[in-house]
């Protein structure tokens, strides 16, 4: 079985196992997803979803958050960890959106990458979830699972994993495929325990299981 064949079968089985999949960061506007994905670094999505409610009560739009004192932002986002750097990035990002993009999140990948605090993972998430464009989000679940599955071989650097997956995953499948990896990584192919291979929908095609 080639890697591309393995990838096609994995996509098929994950679709059957997790027919409905979405980003677990809650948002109703593109700029809010930018804020949440920055806060999600080394923090759970569940905690981020709680913290941003307080943030948006005080700063309800891009202009308000751009004008906010960084210390006020930090005080609210502190529970997400790395509060100082995250608050600085959020403040700088909102200022850039206000001053250079009329308060709108740009739809161009390179423009997204130019925003303060936005890396490839964040930019891909915005491209896929907000704008419906091809995207591969190489978060910790993705990197762990595709290595275990045998889609990549011992590669841990997010950009390199992304590059390899683009060779295997059809563009229209990339975004949902990565969301399903998160679903599967939380439910079955876990990080902090031994993966539950005996009840895995990928049993028989996953390299982890010796296939």
Summarize the structure in words:
- The chain is elongated and about 55 Å long.
- It is built from eleven helices and no strands.
- The chain folds into two domains: 3-22 and 136-209, Helix-hairpin-Helix base-excision DNA repair enzymes (C-terminal) (Endonuclease Iii, domain 2); 30-130, Orthogonal Bundle (Endonuclease III, domain 1).
- Helix 5 (70-77) crosses helix 6 (83-100).
- The protein is an all-alpha fold and 211 residues long.
Notable traits:
single chain; 211 residues; Endonuclease Iii, domain 2; Endonuclease III, domain 1; elongated
Shape by Cα distribution: elongated
Overall CATH architecture of the largest domain: Orthogonal Bundle
CATH topology of the largest domain: Endonuclease III, domain 1
Task: Tell me the strand percentage band.
Answer: under 5%
Helix/strand order, N-terminal first: HHHHHHHHHHH
How many DSSP E strands?
A: 0
Summarize this entry quickly.
The protein is an all-alpha fold and 211 residues long. It is built from eleven helices and no strands. The chain folds into two domains: 94 residues, Helix-hairpin-Helix base-excision DNA repair enzymes (C-terminal) (Endonuclease Iii, domain 2, Orthogonal Bundle), CATH 1.10.1670; 101 residues, Hypothetical protein, domain 2 (Endonuclease III, domain 1).
């Amino acid at each position: 079985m080639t890697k591309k064949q393995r990838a096609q079968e994995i996509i098929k089985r994950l679709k059957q196992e997790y027919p409905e999949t979405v980003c677990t960061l809650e948002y109703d506007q593109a700029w809010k997803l930018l804020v949440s994905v920055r806060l999600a670094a080394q923090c759970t999505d569940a905690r981020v979803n709680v913290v941003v409610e307080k943030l948006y009560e005080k700063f309800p739009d891009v202009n308000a958050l751009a004008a906010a004192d960084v210390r006020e932002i930090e005080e609210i986002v502190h529970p997400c960890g790395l509060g100082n750097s995250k608050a600085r990035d959020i403040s700088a990002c909102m200022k850039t959106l206000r001053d250079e993009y009329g308060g709108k999140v740009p739809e161009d990948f390179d423009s997204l990458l130019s925003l303060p605090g936005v890396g490839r993972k964040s930019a891909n998430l915005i491209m896929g979830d907000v704008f419906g464009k091809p995207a591969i989000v190489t978060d910790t679940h993705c990197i762990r699972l595709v290595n275990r599955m045998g889609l990549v071989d011992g590669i841990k650097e997010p950009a390199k994993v992304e590059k390899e997956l683009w060779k295997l995953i059809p563009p229209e499948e990339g975004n949902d495929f990565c969301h399903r990896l998160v679903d599967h990584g939380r439910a079955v192919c876990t990080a902090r325990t031994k993966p539950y291979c005996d009840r895995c929908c990928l049993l028989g095609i996953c390299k982890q299981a010796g296939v």
